[in-house]
Amino acid sequence: PETALKLSLNDRIKRMVCMDEHRIKPHERFMSGALAGCLAQFCVYPLETIHTRIVVSPAGTYSGIWHVVRTIWRSEGVRAFYRGLL
Fold this sequence. Notes:
- This protein has 3 helices and no strands.
- α1 runs antiparallel to α2.
């Protein structure tokens, strides 16, 4: 999911950043790629946190994905989804 999101975002950002889409300058390419990578990682990171919690928890700790989300949200807050990233 991260790569697909990153590539889609990169194309959109390039269209917004570049003065001439047919002659993209290196700094425009770098800026659009870096921003797309950051945004994609920011969107996907909570899913990785949820996945990790499910995998490392003893069997029966969580009844499903939404149970993990509710538990993290209620007990640790929204920042817990980005722990390690922020």
